[in-house]
């Protein structure tokens, strides 16, 4: 059976009322490290080989 479609605004407000508005510092640092390693403006030129080489 199909489940009813939920309004994303209602779901977001519920989530925000039960969770912190900001990420914990350790997750913020992890995000910053990811952004430094994979800047948005360079993603279109990133080959699989380069991506795999950066991870391992």
Rg result: 18 Å
- The ordered string of helix (H) and strand (E) elements is HHH
Given helix and strand content, the structural type is mainly alpha
Query: Which residues sit in consecutive blocks of at least 5 with pLDDT less than 50?
Result: none
Distinctive features:
single chain; mainly alpha; 57% helix
Summarize the structure in words:
- The protein has a domain at 24-56.
- The protein is an all-alpha fold and 56 residues long.
- The protein contains 3 helices and no strands.
- The mean pLDDT is 86.
Helices and strands, with pairings:
Layout: H1 8-18, H2 25-37, H3 48-55
In brief:
The protein has 56 residues and is an all-alpha fold. The chain has helices spanning 8-18, 25-37, 48-55.
